[in-house]
Amino acid sequence: MASNDQIAECFAIYDKDNDGKVIIDELGPCLRSLGKSPTNADLEAIKADLGNPRDFDIPTIKSILAKKSVRAPADQQKEMLDAFKALDKEGHGSIQEAELRQILTTLGDYLTTAEVEEVMKEVNVNTDGGIDYSKFVEMLVNGYALSGF
């Protein structure tokens, strides 16, 4: 879990007017900045549990982080690998770049085209247009999770 200093520093970044509150729309980015990986459904459930407030404060974010239900990317690693393996009918261990782009922009908690472009800047594509999905998952799990500021 993030330290109190990390939480305070992150919160300060999102508390644009320094009033001790952050608008609820920033909950997802704030949690992700602290190394968690909530889905849109997770965020909606958290907001509902909080009574659908318009904003949140540091004690609220600390209580959310203390709950085991907000998973980190590493907690999802096996699920992500299993999903890619299910798509990999020939067992090559790779996925075509175009197919990955389509998946990222259309399935589940999909990304915007701009978000996909940012992710793809970090991906190694082989000469056949394939991406090693185990390395891709490793990048998602370790490359973007913040262990400290």
From TrEMBL:
UniProt keywords, alphabetically: Motor protein, Myosin, Repeat
GO MF terms, alphabetically ordered: calcium ion binding
This protein's name: Essential myosin light chain
Organism: Heterostelium pallidum (strain ATCC 26659 / Pp 5 / PN500)
A Pfam family the protein falls into: EF-hand_7
EF-hand domain residues: 2-37, 75-110, 111-146
A cellular component annotation (GO) from this entry: myosin II complex
Signal peptide: none
InterPro entries per record: CALM/Myosin/TropC-like, EF-hand-dom_pair, EF_hand_dom
